[in-house]
Amino acid sequence: MLDSFVAGAALLLTSWLFGGMLLFSAGFAAFVFQVLPITEARLLIRKAFPPFYLFVLGASFVSALLCLAIDHTSAIVLGLIALTTVFARQVLMPAINAATDRGDKRRFALLHTFSVLLSLAHIAASAAVLISLAK
């Protein structure tokens, strides 16, 4: 009975993680840049990313802990999402902001591309975990 509770909680939390990342990346961020002037959109996105990264970090970490009891591969994948989110929040995001502030468009493009690819990898990895947990 405890295993089924843990499995259900891991599935729900990973679903929340997947949906939240997908909605933020494909929905919210795109919407902000469509409806706000570019300078306001950049300011809003800059303020939204720190809490977003905390959400990803917390949800992936707790889900990884839950998965330790039921699926070690899923636990490792979710743990890697958590670890790389710390990097994204503490290293990558400040570097992107600094490049923007300096007007260094080349560095911004490089870092932003890496950030987008990392986010896509997080979304894909959480989808893979969802499929594994749903079996």
List keywords for this structure.
135 residues; mainly alpha; 93% helix; single chain; elongated
| Total count of strands | 0
Cα distance, first to last residue? 17 Å
Strand content: under 5%
Largest sheet: none
Average pLDDT over all residues: 96
Uncertain spans: none
Provide the helix percentage: over 70%
**How many helical elements?**
4
Return the structural class.
mainly alpha
Report the C-alpha radius of gyration, rounded: 16 Å
- The number of domains is 1
Secondary-structure element series: HHHH
Shape: elongated
Describe this structure in words.
This protein is mainly alpha-helical. The protein has one domain (2-134). It is 93% helix and 0% strand. The protein has 4 helices and no strands. It has helices at residues 2-35, 38-67, 72-102, 105-134. α1 runs antiparallel to α2 (38-67), α1 runs antiparallel to α4 and α3 packs antiparallel against α4. The chain is elongated. The model has no long low-confidence stretch (mean pLDDT 96).
